[in-house]
Amino acid sequence: MFTRCLVCSTPFEANEELEHAPHAYRLAFDPSRGRLWAICQNCRRWSLMPIEGRWEALEELEKVTVDRARLLSRTDNIALMRAGPLEIVRVGPAKLKEEAWWRYGKELAGRKRNWDKLGVAGSVAAGAVVAGGWAAGGISLLGVWIILGHGSDTLRDAARWLRFGSSAWKGQQECSNCGFNVQSVAFRDRHALGLFLSQETGEVEIVSRCARCGLYRDAGLRLTGDEADRTLRRVLAYHHFAGASEERVFQATHLIQEAGSPQDFTRIVLRDGKRLGDVQRTGGIALEIAANEAAEQALLELEVAELEARWRREEELAAIIDGELTPLPLLEQMRRRIAPG
Ligand SMILES: [Zn+2]
Ligand SMILES: [Zn+2]
Predict the structure, then answer these.
(1) Which of 112, 162, 223, 250 is the most buried if burial means most Cβ atoms within 10 Å?
(2) Which residues of 69-82 are buried (b: 16+ CB within 10 A; e: fewer)?
(3) Does residue 73 contact residue 301 with C-beta atoms inside 8 Å?
(4) What's the confidence (pLDDT) of residue 337?
């Protein structure tokens, strides 16, 4: 096994997961052609591992991907997977079921643990405990000092304020009816936000009632496209700051699976439009998972398309290096004539 990238000589970072391929965190393999590459974290090029010792590593990798890898994204030809800290590109049709939203399950359950810890600490009046060096939820001494000055009622409120601030959206938009200049939407008004699907694009739109003329949807604030998407993810993360139990995350991801895809789920839930405050809890969690998943999936699709292009080039090279272009059958024929058997 090489320990450095063959192109730029950057050393591979050793992993502790694979006995037979311990030299890199990013690996690519093709079980049917018998190829194994280490992927450089610096130049992204693939280094073909020498044939000696490759087979054990291929067997081991195939076992890891079947037993415990998660499929992140795929094309018809390659699949991008993660197994613990390893990033694995597998060439060939993937046997795994796509379940990319498991990540958010972890994230939401983690939020719940933090939330529970913050509850134990109670009110900011008990802040001395925190100042004594206790740092749940990633609150530093500086954070505690800011909280005490901010006048939040509880540590939970304070932690949420530290993380998000108080505005769900800031910008400049004029009400098309009365010309009122809308500059922000406060998180505390989030329950009244309207979530709709754009008639033209089918994407989520966020609307907010005009503070002056009181019009809603036809005027007032309307966020569309990326801005709506970002704001939605931010508002939902705030809304679900308390996280969710694994049970609820399981139910939520099940809803998404039944709908077919994150996008389909969002379309079903918001078909007739909804106030955020009217979205029931499991549906809301599923909406947050779906919103993040759709964004993540778009990035992963770009990445996996790039990986596929990379694989095509590296496979051409590998075929040469592994000697498939030299006329082996001919050599073999000659060898047999000389030394039969
Ligand atoms: Zn390199
Ligand atoms: Zn107005």
Answers:
(1) 223
(2) bbbbbbeeebbbbb
(3) yes
(4) 57
Half-sphere exposure of 139 (CA within 13 A, CB side): 31
The C-alpha atoms of residue 207 and residue 212 are separated, in whole angstroms, by 15
Tell me the pLDDT tens digit for each residue of 262-294: 889 999 999 999 999 999 999 999 999 999 888
Rg (CA), the chain: 27
Placement of tokens 């918001």 in the chain: 270
Give the Cα separation of 126 and 158 in Å (integer). Answer: 13
Please give the distance, rounded to the nearest whole angstrom, from the Cα atom of residue 208 to the centre of ligand 2.
Answer: 10
- Which residues are close to ligand 1, an ion, with C-beta < 5 A? 5, 7-8, 10, 40, 42-43
H/E stretch holding 249 reads helix 246-259
pTM: 0.66
Residue linked to tokens 């965190």 = 25
Rounded to an integer, the average pLDDT of 31-39 is 90
Task: Give the separation between CA 78 and CA 304, rounded to whole angstroms.
Answer: 8
Euclidean distance between CA atoms 57 and 39, whole angstroms: 15
